[in-house]
Amino acid sequence: MARQISGFNFKHIFIFIFSSLVYALCQMLLSNIVMQDDLWRKFAVQLTAHYVVVVVMCAADYNLLLFLNKHFPYSKNVLYRIIADLVGLTLICFALLWIFDLMLYKILLISAAGLPPFTTKFALGILTNAPIMLVFELIHYFRSEQKAIADSEKAKREVLLFQHETLKAQINPHFLFNSLNVLSSLIYLNPKNANKFTKALSRSYRYVLSLNQQPAVTVAEEMEALDSYIFLMQMRFENAFTFKVHQSGGIENNKIVPLTMQLLMENVFKHNIATEEAPLDIQITIGNEHIIVENQVRPSSNADKSGIGLKYLKKQYQLYGKEIAVEHTGNQFIVKVPYIEP
């Protein structure tokens, strides 16, 4: 493995020094051909001067690239980026030539006799600097493509992990034990409801298993699956909570991350106390920009801290560049879920 100091790889430093030296030599040859000068006259001085110019241009171009990536990225407007590149190259060449002329003629007091005019040097400067900027742009482009591919693969792995964790949460022993315990009681007390409970449990699991190839689902699909889950909770908690949905029309096809609503409901029941004497109020508002889940805060002292929870949902929405907003206003806990696809 190549040795590194302060994050710089010796291999990359060597490649830069060697390539910039070769490029400076090529530019020196071109300059001597254009100016019809003697190549071997003060060869070392000429090569050193050209090498300094190339290195300074590399530093200037690199900083220009960082500035353009921040303020004029290709993703916004390709034409503006190209124009910004050309303007930046022009300003860099003009500024460097002005500084070098100042050093040569004003500080070192070298005579301008026999030296090319400013316009000729400026043209040579543009000719020298353009390939450097082009190489930087190509390197940035290919690195961006590699990063995009890596991010895409990471996002796929995150989605698969989310689905796996979600499935584990659905089949964890506590959930199964509670569901089967309720079902066992219903079989003797209310066979009709036992049959409904079994079908709802089956629909809930079927929905989870159907999500293997679905990174997003519609609001309508999610709410339909939530109905089965809420029915299971009603059979378990009976009159210990109230549940209402407020919905605007025309947004049923908006998309969200699968099982968002069910996981939020799990959090509500997991972290709060619900009794028939003081029912827990839960409301869902499906708006134009967000789905808002709101519940009363009645902390449970022995809340189960396992499972996916809100932090996993936040991570999933961040993969789409979205943020889940969480508000804790006194005795109310509010979660605002954005749509990932309107």
TrEMBL record:
Higher taxonomy: Bacteria, Pseudomonadati, Bacteroidota, Cytophagia, Cytophagales
Superkingdom of the organism of origin: Bacteria
Keywords carried by this UniProt record: Kinase, Membrane, Transferase, Transmembrane, Transmembrane helix
UniProt KW Chloroplast keyword: no
InterPro entries in the record: Bact_2-comp_sensor_kinase (IPR050640), Sig_transdc_His_kin_internal (IPR010559)
A Pfam match: His_kinase
Single annotated GO MF: phosphorelay sensor kinase activity
Official protein name in the record: Signal transduction histidine kinase, LytS
Transmembrane domains' residue ranges: 12-35, 47-66, 78-100
GO CC annotation, single: membrane
Signal transduction histidine kinase internal region domain sequence ranges: 163-240
